[in-house]
Structures are given as structure tokens and as C-alpha cells.
TrEMBL record:
Designated name of the protein: Gluconate 2-dehydrogenase subunit 3 family protein
Lineage, top ranks: Bacteria, Bacillati, Bacillota, Bacilli, Bacillales
Matching InterPro entries: Gluconate_2DH_su3
Native source organism of the sequence: Evansella vedderi
Length: 197
């Protein structure tokens, strides 16, 4: 996909959460139609950064890789959570520093017990809180945001997904067709058959 930086007409900050809003001129918007627009240059995540995030997420929430939670976090750092990138970079640096000093290995090369010990040392840090929050979002948010692949998080807690008035329907004895995302996707098994509970 071609990525092009559009000319920014104005920048504003949302009053409640401080997120940046960007507006483009009509000509700039027409020029980038059909292409990915980014107000931020894409940060170059290293293999160590990605593998450390994957290992930390999988340690924090076992089987989170099945839900592509690591993918959700990396992509979110490229866009909506860009301002938290420095927190992640410092956290990944600290995780690998502790792993190296305690075990002479990189964090992602450690076993689950070693990774857990290191994460426990960082429990009271901003990185840990942010990683935990984003892990939960990636595991339980709608799959259209990049995590919760095949709705594994929803199946884990028995959430039916985006349904039209599910309480009304189920109270009348109607059966829900399994989990459904906001895009209308249904959970499928390994053979591409609809998942049945």
C-alpha cells in the first residue's frame, strides 16, 4: 500500500482526552484518496522490539498470541497510541536489560518463569500498566481493531459479539448464531467452518 504524507490544513486537540485531530484541505484529501494517510512517520520497529512485546503479552495473558494481541499493540503504536511509543521503547529496553543482567539472555528467549519474574519487577511502572491495558483491549475489543482474532477473547468469556438486540432476542428464546464482530464476521474453526458452541 502506498503511504503518502498529506498536507495538514489544521491541527486541534480534543478537549476531553487530548488526542490530536488533523484536518486536510480538499485538494490534499483528493490527492491521497485510496492511499494510507499518516500524520506520523512510521516508526521502524526492530525484531527485538516485536519479539519482546510478543513475549511480554503472552506472559501477561497466556495464549494472547492466538488473538493477535501483539499485532494490535504494534499497529496501535503506529497510530492511535503513538504518544505512548516512548513508554514502550523504555519498557522493552528495561525488560531486555533485566533479562540480560539476571539470565544473560534477551527477554523473549527466557522461559515463562523467567519472564514472569522480570515482569513482576516492573509491576509498578507506567510501562506495565500501559501494556496490561493494551493487552486487555487487544484480547477483548472487536476484531475490526486488529486484535481478538477469531474472537478468541469473546469465546473465552462467552460474549456473543455484536448482535441486534441480543437481550431481547435471547429472552424470547431465540438462539444467537455464535459470536459476530461489528464487521459481521463469524467465528470460524481451522477448516473455515462456522464455530458452534
Amino acid at each position: 500500500m502506498n503511504e503518502r504524507k498529506a498536507g495538514i490544513k489544521y491541527r486541534r486537540v480534543r478537549p476531553l482526552d487530548g488526542r490530536l485531530l488533523v484536518g486536510y484541505s480538499v485538494n490534499d484529501w483528493k490527492a491521497v484518496k485510496g492511499r494510507k494517510v499518516s500524520i506520523y512517520p512510521r516508526f521502524k520497529e526492530t525484531e527485538l522490539f516485536v519479539s519482546t512485546i510478543k513475549a511480554a503479552v503472552d506472559t501477561m495473558f497466556p495464549d494472547a498470541r492466538k488473538g493477535r494481541v501483539d499485532h494490535y499493540i504494534i499497529e496501535s503504536l503506529q497510530t492511535v497510541y503513538r504518544r505512548e511509543l516512548s513508554v514502550y521503547e523504555e519498557g522493552v529496553r528495561r525488560l531486555n536489560q533485566l533479562a540480560n543482567s539476571m539470565y544473560s539472555k534477551a527477554f523473549h528467549q527466557l522461559g515463562e518463569k523467567g519472564r514472569t519474574r522480570i515482569l513482576e519487577k516492573l509491576e509498578e511502572t507506567e510501562f506495565f500498566y500501559t501494556l496490561r491495558q493494551h493487552t486487555m483491549e487487544g484480547m477483548f475489543a472487536d476484531p475490526k481493531y486488529g486484535g481478538n482474532r477469531n474472537m478468541v477473547g469473546w469465546r473465552l468469556i462467552g460474549f456473543p459479539g455484536a448482535q441486534f438486540h441480543p437481550i431481547t432476542h435471547t429472552s424470547r428464546g431465540w438462539k444467537t448464531p455464535g459470536s459476530v464482530s461489528l464487521k459481521g464476521e463469524r467465528v470460524r474453526d481451522g477448516n473455515n467452518n462456522l464455530f458452534r458452541r
